[in-house]
Every structure is written in structure tokens, then in C-alpha cells.
Amino acid sequence: MIPYKNVTEAYILGNNEDMITRLDDTLLTLSNILASRFVEGIRPRVETQVRMFRHLQELLDEWAIHQTNYIYLEPILSTNASQMGLQKESSKFKTAEKSWRNIMKRCKENPFCRNWAEESVNRTYFQQLKNNNANFEIIQKALDDYLEKKREHFQRFPAYVGSSSSPTTSCWRS
User: Fold this and answer.
1) What is the pTM of this model?
2) Which residue ranges form the domains of the chain, and what is each CATH number?
């Protein structure tokens, strides 16, 4: 966990490739154990471990998507969303941001992956991140629609250069 933009109580996941590699290796090992004919005495425990680690893997995947979306949308919606007419989307973003900061704060307080993996029973954080990602998709679509409207009103200069009715082109030809 690293601080995000030197803001208090705002963190992001740092480079977690090593953890993901270890998680994948652990799941592979557990799969091999389950395939063994000698697993019968411990099968329920191994299956519980597999479920726990798969939940952690899903949680981290959803978390990475959430973090990417948040880092993209935060500078846009934290400053001028009301000026752009995206009040509803800004409100959704603030709700998602509050939820995310709460999750990150709890992760900072208790950084052990095992504790996060054991939450597979209620999957609260996974569901929160999934809901936030769905809201981020709605926000992104509204932002794209807004930008498309602006592009229609303010077309770029090179689109006019090739036009024979362009005042600049007629000046160059004179």
C-alpha cells in the first residue's frame, strides 16, 4: 500500500505482481493436491483453502480494475464535474470514493492477505468494489457522451484546413 497523491487516508495498491505470482502458484499447488489420490483425509480443508484463495484472486482483480478507474476519473470529477453538468455522476463517484477509501483504510490497518481471503463467507468488499466498478462504467459513459458533445461543438482546426470554404485556405490561395 502506498499513499495516493499525499492525501490523508487515501492509498492505492503498489506493485503486487509478486503477491499475484505467489497466489497463482499456491492455487496450482492446491489443485495438484486435490488431484492426488492421497488427499481424501484432508480434502475438505484443501477445498476450503482453494475457495479462500480464489476469492482473494477475484478480489484483487476487481480491486485492480477499481483502482485504475478511480485514478483515471478522480482528477476529472473531483474538480469540475459540476461545471460539466455531471452532478449525478459526481455524486456516484463521491459515494464510490468514500467506500473505496474505507476499504483502503481497513486494508492499511490490517494488511494481511489471509484476513482478506477469509472474508469469502460474506464477500462484502468484493461486492462493494464490483458495485463501484459498475458505477464507474456509468460515469465513464456519461463523460464520453459529454466529451462527444463538446467535440461536435468545437471541431478541431485541421478539419477546416482541407475545406475550400475555410477563410484560412482562401487567404493562402490568394
Assistant:
1) 0.71
2) 2-155 (1.20.140.100)
